[in-house]
Write a structure and sequence with these properties.
By secondary structure, this protein is mainly α. It folds into 2 domains: 85 residues, no CATH class; 506 residues, Amino acid/polyamine transporter I, CATH 1.20.1740. It is built from 28 helices and 5 strands. A hairpin with a 2-residue loop joins strand 3 and strand 4. Helix 5 packs across helix 22, helix 8 packs across helix 16 and helix 24 crosses helix 25. One of its GO terms (biological process) is amino acid import across plasma membrane. Keywords: Disulfide bond, Membrane, Metal-binding, Sodium, Symport, Transmembrane, Transmembrane helix, Transport.
């Protein structure tokens, strides 16, 4: 009787397979019933798993070439060294947000007091979700879509991650194009946005703006808005205007660099990160040392860190802390999951999680000294308060900070150094996002992975399509579309995707089983790892979902009460609705693909649901191969789900606390 959990009848044959259904005893003591059949009778007959070692002799000549056996499985690449994975993840996480967003949020939300909600959100949401993504990818050795063979009902989470990655890649490389433009302009002496340049002499000589404002005209703002963006020639979203050919060339160069660095997958990008992930730290150290020698730098640092304890009572402070964690760690986009899928099975994901997340947060905090020491000097030179020159986002990277660098002796050198750092920060982050997309597609179509030419051709077509779509963002009104995509691509849709990932693994797949999987991956798991798993288990089940719901509620309230704007331009209702549709498209993949999974099963709705949350047979192949135990070859094996039946052990002790006996 199919689907029974307590019957004693012998398992039936699955129609069309011609093979007896199998049952085995899983490593953690759970009785496993393959293909949805009752386990008890089979477990009595087969008290131990039936495994055979990998065959050392060649396969028989009469085996069909298209038989889905292990002999025809396309080999998956692996990182050539542990440092490549760590540097790739650090480069992916340590991005532009660490430089242009965290320092601004810190001073806006109470200075040093902001570190309290920041680290609380880090340890309760950031680190647990980071570990969950790395563990899923490494255990399943699969990308964001295929990895949900652990719970087919939630395949839509992977599709949603893919949608978010597409939106992020679409606008993120435009930032690199801007960086290219500024880098090329920095080769001029004097800098084209400095008061020493002949074109800016009249501007800097004016005491106030032509409209009678008391604010002095800034040549950096004019350079940014007129020469780079051309936004002064656009009226809004409805008026994008022509493509700016200089930016279009910079965008093309950016995508060509991405293609060349990723052409051979992690074998090429893993080598590039040795430079791109480490050079920004050298630049930050140099900028901090140089900033410490400037007049007014201490005022800038004091403004950065001076605590305002009353800000802790403001809900926006806590939301900003949580959003910064998601923004900087790259959670829920699929990049982490994809990069972890190329790890060796026995890599210590807990150790890597701690190293990467702590390194990311330390970089954010350290970058604040490089930013505010120089901004403090600019405020001192202008005779104004630091808050009048501080900004965030592109306004900091392309207006405020370049203006501050233009005041320094040797401004050309400092400007080149700064924009090379921004370029490398952006490229590393884009590597991770593009890896999430390519890995997802290559896992779904493995024949592309086995052919180097086809794989390179796919990557080239993907980069070219992104370039064509990105041309909208380098028009005169492109900054309006950039702001729209930036505001909604990683907003409520990303939070909903992450929330379902956390709840799905905790309650559908099983948090105890997930903890056991992590222990299985760590050889000689030390006691501190198991103690940490107790903490992570509490976060996954209780704390993290609660805080994600808080963030989601705040986002919806803020989205309803606040209008979207760029500068003085307020977005129309249809523009804001378009942004909401972007976010909704990402998270709606979850119910759509859940419905598809239910329709593919048979039986009552309850039976279909129970079958669709069971992992597929192939889910644990990576683990079985790692311990040298593979199941008997089944040439016609169907990827049917199996169920884990709880035993008394689940209610009396947690097997993962004692570790694996295998």
């Amino acid at each position: 009787m199919q689907g029974g959990s307590g019957g004693t009848t012998a398992p039936e044959r699955r129609p069309g397979t011609g093979h007896e259904e199998q049952s085995s005893l899983h490593q953690n003591g759970h009785i496993v019933a393959l293909n949805g059949h009752a386990p008890h009778a089979a477990a009595a007959a087969l008290p131990m798993p039936q495994f055979t070692p990998p065959a050392s002799s060649p396969a028989p000549m009469d085996t069909p070439m298209d038989t889905p056996t292990s002999s025809t499985t396309v080999l998956r690449e692996q990182w050539e060294g542990k440092h490549e994975f760590l540097l790739s993840c650090i480069g992916y996480c340590v991005g532009l947000g660490n430089v242009w967003r965290f320092p601004y949020l810190c001073y806006r939300n109470g200075g040093g007091v902001f570190l309290i909600p920041y680290f609380l959100m880090l340890f309760v949401t950031g680190v647990p979700l980071f570990l969950m993504e790395l563990s899923l990818g490494q255990y399943g050795s699969a990308g964001p879509i295929t990895v949900w063979k652990c719970c087919p009902l939630l395949k839509g989470i992977g599709i949603g991650m893919l949608c978010v990655s597409v939106l992020v890649c679409l606008y993120y490389n435009v930032i690199i194009a801007w960086t290219f433009y500024y880098l090329g302009s920095s080769l001029q002496s004097p800098l084209p946005w400095s008061c020493d340049h002949v074109d800016n002499a009249a501007i800097c000589g004016n005491a106030s703006a032509a409209n009678g404002s008391s604010d002095p005209l800034s040549p950096t703002e004019i350079f940014w808005n007129e020469r780079v963006l051309g936004v002064v020639h656009s009226e809004g979203l409805h008026d994008p205007g022509p493509v700016r050919w200089q930016l279009a060339l910079c965008l093309l160069a950016a995508w060509i660099i991405i293609f060349l660095c990723m052409m051979k997958g992690i074998r090429s990008s893993g080598k590039v990160v040795y430079v791109t992930a480490t050079f920004p730290y050298l630049v930050l150290v140099v900028l901090v040392i140089r900033g410490a020698t400037l007049e007014g730098s201490l005022q800038g640092v004091a403004f950065y860190l001076t605590p305002d304890w009353g800000r802790l009572a403001n809900a926006q402070v806590w939301n900003d802390a949580a959003s910064q964690i998601f923004y900087s760690l790259g959670i829920g986009v699929g990049g982490l999951l994809s990069m972890a899928s190329y790890n060796k099975f026995d890599n210590n994901v807990i150790r890597d999680t701690i190293i990467i997340t702590m390194g990311n947060c330390a970089t954010s905090f350290f970058a604040g000294f490089a930013i505010f020491s120089v901004l403090g000097h600019m405020a001192w030179r202008k005779g104004v308060a630091v808050q009048e020159v501080a900004d965030s986002g592109p306004g900091l990277a392309f207006v405020a900070y370049p203006e501050a660098l233009a005041l320094l002796p040797g401004s050309v050198f400092w400007s080149i150094l700064f924009f090379i750092m921004l370029f490398m920060l952006g490229v590393d982050t884009l590597f991770g996002n593009m890896e999430g997309i390519t890995t997802a597609v290559l896992d779904e179509f493995p024949h592309l992975r086995g052919n180097t030419l086809h794989k390179s051709l796919f990557l080239g077509v993907l980069c070219f399509c992104f370039y064509l779509m990105g041309l909208l963002l380098v028009t005169n009104g492109g900054i309006y579309w950039f702001t729209l995509i930036d505001s909604f691509s990683t907003s409520f849709g990303l939070i909903i995707i992450t929330l379902f990932m956390c709840l799905g693994i905790s309650f559908f797949y099983g948090v105890n089983q997930f903890c056991q999987d992590i222990v299985d991956m760590i050889p000689l798991c030390p006691p501190w790892c198991r103690r940490l798993l107790l903490y992570f288990k509490a976060c996954w089940v209780f704390c993290t979902p609660f805080l994600l719901l808080f963030i989601l509620t705040y986002i919806f309230i803020e989205m309803y009460n606040t209008s979207l704007h760029y500068g003085a331009y307020v977005y129309p209702r249809w523009g804001k609705a378009l942004g909401v549709c972007m976010g909704a498209t990402c998270c709606l993949q979850i119910p759509i693909w859940a419905l598809v999974a239910l329709c593919r099963e048979t039986g009552t709705l309850r039976d279909r649901f129970q079958k669709s949350i069971r992992p597929l047979n192939c889910w644990r192949e990576n683990y079985l191969n790692s311990v040298g135990r593979v199941q008997e070859a089944e040439p016609e094996r169907v990827e049917a789900p199996f169920t884990v039946t709880l035993t008394d052990m689940d209610f009396t002790a947690m097997t993962w606390e004692r570790g694996s006996e295998a």
